[in-house]
Design brief:
The protein is of the alpha+beta class. It has a single domain, classed as ph1033 like domains (ph1033 like fold, Roll), CATH 3.10.590. Helices cover 28% and strands 34% of the residues. It is built from six helices and six strands. The chain is globular, with a radius of gyration of 14 Å. The N and C termini lie close together (7 Å). It binds a DNA duplex through loops.
DNA sequence: GCCAACGTTGGC
DNA sequence: GCCAACGTTGGC
């Protein structure tokens, strides 16, 4: 399985709304590299939910439950979305500041490609971020895969 | 195909 | 509010 990070501005769609909705289509991605990443996601992959602009921290974990399909918010049907399901909150949200000061996280996409809204995360970085966020072990991996 | 102008994202 | 990074548009 693969690990990912998806960004949302909490003013537009927040983690609280994600908890409430439980399963939600991840729509509105309008960048080719992000689209490619969406298309590489497989059912059961896990993703960090990051609050951009306001908060600037990793606040939760979601699971991909429906692979890429045409984004209903795109009238031209040329962009895609996936469905994500709430897995758990990150008990101790990991801030961008923390990530920037951690020597083991310097080559993470969040820093190197700050404008990309859907990116992959290595399993090593995933483990480090889970530890920093104090994510319970049982949520760090999807046992179904 | 190049590049200037402009728009957007997102951090500071 | 500013700006860096990056993407898009359109003239040539």
């Amino acid at each position: 399985m693969n690990y990912w990070l998806v960004k949302s501005e909490p003013d537009a769609y927040s983690w609280q709304e994600q908890i409430h909705n439980h399963i939600e289509p991840w729509t509105g991605v309008r960048n080719h590299q992000a689209k490619k990443n969406l298309q590489s996601m497989r059912n059961g992959d896990l993703a960090f939910f990051y609050h951009s602009n306001v908060g600037k921290e990793i606040v939760g974990i979601v699971k991909i439950v429906k692979e890429a399909y045409p984004d209903p918010t795109d009238p031209e049907h040329k962009w895609v979305c996936v469905d994500v399901e709430t897995v758990c909150p990150v008990p101790n949200p990991v801030t961008l500041k923390q990530i920037k000061t951690d020597p083991t996280l310097q080559d993470i996409g969040l820093i190197k490609q700050s404008r990309l809204s859907v990116m992959s995360i290595t399993s090593e970085h995933w483990a480090i971020l889970c530890r920093l966020g104090q994510v319970p072990t049982k949520y760090q991996q999807n046992k179904e895969n």
